[in-house]
Design goal:
The protein is an alpha/beta fold and 213 residues long. The protein has seven helices and seven strands; from the N terminus they run H-H-E-E-H-E-H-E-H-E-H-E-E-H. A seven-stranded mixed sheet has the order 2-1-5-4-3-6-7. Helix 2 runs parallel beside helix 5. Keywords: Cytochrome c-type biogenesis, Disulfide bond, Redox-active center, Signal-anchor, Transmembrane. One of its GO terms (biological process) is cytochrome complex assembly. It is found in: Cell envelope.
Amino acid sequence: MTTSTRWTLLVLAVAAAIVTALALSLGHTPPGTGSAPGAQAARTHREADTPEALAEPRQRADLPPCPAVADNPGPQELRGIVVECAADGADVDVARALAGRPVVVNLWAYWCGPCAEELPAMADYQRRVGPDVTVVTVHQDENETAALLRLAELGVRLPTLQDGQRRIAAALNVPNVMPATVVLRADGSVAKILPQAFTSADEIAAAVKNAVQ
């Protein structure tokens, strides 16, 4: 074997190793990046988050059920998206669950500092506004256990969808920042996308009012 042949084989081996490493890295989505818009979600949470593993975190979080599915087909952008309800692991048809009522959709992740400050304000806003508006949070990381424990720690009890592949945000064209909030009208149309953090229920109430006017 000549020296040039050896060098050629070495270069090919290194190139193959690089391609393999890239493929493996692309198969994992680091916290905070979310999935690319249009990507097909294989799962909404980690393989480690089995029903057995989630039982205690769910009990600690004590979340309310996700909104009941309505006969209305719901927002067109969200049709066909099914994710998990963090409260009990049930599948949720997102479009139909958010249909027929004004909804404030809050997008967050367990590791997001501003999200942890904002979530109690969202809960306070829900208490103030009552049944006129429904606040639904969407956890955008595959670590569902960490999400439940963070909600338990914060004492926030809001309906929560587990969307580790960021399908809801991608469908609504929400910028890949957290926290972010989407205000939906009762007819399912998007009134406003708010890629910002709120610090009080008053701020949220004012933003929602301005969005639907």
